[in-house]
Specification:
HIT family, subunit A; 17% strand; binds adenosine monophosphate; alpha+beta; globular; 137 residues
């Protein structure tokens, strides 16, 4: 499947639209989910263009899981969460809505949470939470 260069995360990577950034390096970007399913809900994406984990190079996949682990640790500490859920959807049939591979880092449990939140987070609150997580990285 061909990669859509105009998906919203590609635009975030090109700095065409803003995000509440938590972490960035040469290969990875982490930022707050705009419709958090829980406070501290963070997304971690590779810079390599790939729609799902199946198209990602093995090198980028292994780098990504290391960054996910690092961000998850920071989210857990910053949010004082007893548990952290990681999830990652591949393809519209699996519920993926943004066609650039991403890991969700969610404080607490996904059980009982909505699969997709329907309310936009308050931008000021998202930025406050992002700062707390950044301080742990
Ligand atoms: P998925 O259903 O796994 O594709 O999740 C996509 C996630 O991206 C959802 O949780 C959305 O709330 C989130 N999202 C969509 N647009 C943005 C955006 N501009 N900034 C941050 N998160 C976004």
């Amino acid at each position: 499947m061909s990669y859509d260069e105009n998906n919203i995360f590609a635009k975030i990577l090109r700095d065409e639209i803003p995000c509440s950034k938590v972490y960035e390096d040469d290969t990875t970007l982490a930022f707050m989910d705009i419709m958090p399913q829980a406070p501290g809900h963070t997304l971690v994406i590779p810079k390599e263009p790939a729609e799902t984990i199946l198209e990602l190079s093995p090198e980028a996949a292994s780098d990504l899981i290391n960054k996910v682990q690092m961000v998850a640790q920071a989210v857990k500490t910053a949010m004082k969460a007893d548990g952290i859920t990681l999830f990652q959807l591949n393809g519209a049939a699996a519920g993926q809505t943004v066609p650039h591979i991403h890991f969700h880092v969610l404080p607490g449990s996904i059980l009982g949470a909505r699969t997709h939140a329907s309310e936009m987070g308050d931008p000021a609150e998202l930025e406050k939470v992002a700062a707390r997580i950044r301080a742990e990285l």
